[in-house]
Design goal:
single chain; 21% strand; 5-stranded antiparallel sheet; alpha/beta; 389 residues; 41% helix
Length: 389
C-alpha cells in the first residue's frame, strides 16, 4: 500500500482523471485480482533509466490500490529485470506470461527489448503495453504504444532547428532500429523544411572513444550534431564532445532529467532536447505527481518522460479495464481507445486504428546550471504510423 496513506477520496481529488475510477462493473468482483507484469532494464547499461521507470510504476500501483484497485480488484504486481538484454527480455517475459499468468505485460525501454517482449506476448495472446518513445511503425493487435513516435517528437525538433539553429545535421547513433529509424525520420523532417542530413554514423555499444567519429563530423562541417545514443555510451559521448574541440550545437532528443547529474554543467550546457514531458511543467496534475514522487523516493531523485509515461500508462490501463468490465486482452484493447487520462503528461488517449497515443511535445535546452529550460510547447498531435489495425 502507499506510503502516502491517502484515502480513496484524496486520491481521486489529488490526481483527477489519472486516478479516477468508473462505475464498477459487476463482472469485476472485489475478491478478484489484476496481475500486472512490469519489465524494465534494472541492471546493465540502461539501468539508470530503468530504475526511474520502476519508481514511477511503483507509485502508480500505490495510487491505484489506495483508490480501490482496478474496479475493486487489488493489483498484484510482479517485476522483472530484462538486464538490457534481448535474450533476458524474452526469458523474463516468458516467465511473466507462462508461469505468473499476468493479465498485462507493461514496460521495456529500448526497441530491441520491445521487439523481444512482443515476440512472446503476441504468441501467447497477452496484452503488452510499451510506454517509451520509439521509431514508430510497430503494430500488433495486442500491442499498445503510449510513447511518442517521430511525428510527435522528431518533427517538432526538425522544425525548430531549421528555423532557429541551422539547416544541416550530422547524426551519431547506436547501430540498431531506434537510431536508424529515427535518423530516417529526422532526414525527412529536415528536407521538408529546406534542411538536410549531412551524414550519419551508427556505432556499436560499448564505445569508449568517440574521437574518430568527431573527426568525421569536423570533415563534414554540419551546422548541428545530433546524438542518438543510449545510457552509458550517451554519457561518454557528451563528456568527450567539447574536449575534442567540437563547436556545433548539440541536439540529443533523449537527454532528460536523469542524464543531468551524470556530467558536469559545462559538458552539457546548450544541449537541445525534445520530449513528451519535463519535470518542471507547471500543472495541477504534474505538481501533485512530483510531490508524491518526492515523498516516496526523495526530493533529489529525478523524474523523466519515460518514467512518467509508465505511471500514466498504468492509469490508462486501469480505466480501460473498468470500461471493458474485463481483463481479457481483446476487450481491454477495444476499450482503451474509448477512455483517456489526464496526468503529468497532459491528456493521454489512444487511437483505435493503430493503438498509438495522441501526445504533446516540449522542446528544452540545458542551461549553464545543468537545468532543462522549456523553450516551446507543442500541442498534442495524433500519431503518424505506417500501419493500421
Amino acid at each position: 500500500m502507499s506510503k502516502l496513506h491517502i484515502t480513496r477520496r484524496t486520491a481521486l481529488k489529488g490526481f483527477g482523471a489519472a486516478a479516477g475510477t468508473l462505475a464498477m462493473p459487476s463482472i469485476l468482483r472485489a475478491a478478484d485480482q489484476v496481475k500486472i507484469g512490469f519489465i524494465a532494464p534494472l541492471t546493465g547499461s540502461e539501468a539508470i533509466l530503468g530504475i526511474v521507470q520502476l519508481q514511477c510504476y511503483q507509485l502508480a500501483i500505490d495510487h491505484l490500490n489506495a483508490a480501490g484497485g482496478i474496479g475493486g480488484r487489488e493489483i498484484i504486481s510482479l517485476t522483472e529485470d530484462d538486464e538490457t538484454n534481448a535474450k533476458s527480455t524474452i526469458d523474463k517475459t516468458r516467465k511473466l506470461v507462462a508461469d505468473d499468468n499476468v493479465d498485462l505485460v507493461l514496460g521495456t525501454l529500448a526497441s530491441f527489448e520491445r521487439t523481444a517482449a512482443l515476440s512472446v506476448t503476441s504468441r501467447a495472446k497477452k496484452l503488452f503495453i510499451y510506454p517509451t518513445y520509439y521509431e514508430g511503425g510497430d503494430c500488433s493487435p495486442l500491442l499498445v504504444n503510449t510513447g511518442q513516435v517521430p511525428n510527435q517528437q522528431i518533427d517538432p525538433l526538425a522544425e525548430y532547428l531549421t528555423a532557429n539553429v541551422g539547416k544541416s545535421v550530422y547524426v551519431i547513433g547506436h547501430d540498431y532500429i531506434w537510431p536508424r529509424g529515427s535518423t530516417e525520420q529526422l532526414k525527412a523532417g529536415l528536407e521538408a523544411r529546406g534542411g538536410s542530413l549531412a551524414g550519419a554514423e551508427f556505432v556499436p555499444f560499448g564505445m569508449t572513444d568517440f574521437g574518430p567519429s568527431f573527426a568525421k563530423i569536423k570533415a563534414a562541417n554540419p551546422d548541428i550534431v545530433s546524438f542518438m545514443l543510449v545510457a552509458d555510451d550517451a554519457i561518454t559521448a557528451v563528456k568527450q564532445y567539447h574536449s575534442f574541440g567540437m563547436k556545433q550545437p548539440l541536439v540529443f532528443h533523449a537527454w532528460d532529467e536523469v542524464s543531468l547529474g551524470a556530467v558536469t554543467p559545462a559538458e552539457q550546457a546548450g544541449i537541445l532536447s525534445s520530449q513528451g514531458y519535463f519535470q518542471q511543467i507547471d500543472s495541477p496534475a504534474n505538481n501533485a505527481f512530483t510531490k508524491a514522487f518526492a515523498e516516496k523516493f526523495g526530493a533529489d531523485k529525478p523524474i523523466n518522460y519515460i518514467g512518467v509515461s509508465v505511471y500514466q500508462t498504468a492509469m490508462l490501463y486501469a480505466k480501460a479495464v473498468e470500461k471493458a468490465g474485463s481483463v481479457e486482452p481483446e476487450k481491454v484493447v477495444a476499450a482503451i481507445s474509448q477512455v483517456e487520462v489526464d496526468g503529468p503528461i497532459g491528456v493521454m488517449r489512444v487511437e483505435a486504428g493503430n493503438n498509438h497515443a495522441v501526445l504533446p511535445n516540449y522542446l528544452a535546452k540545458v542551461n549553464d546550471s545543468a537545468k532543462l529550460e522549456i523553450l516551446q510547447k507543442n500541442e498534442p498531435k495524433p500519431p503518424v504510423t505506417s500501419c493500421s489495425l
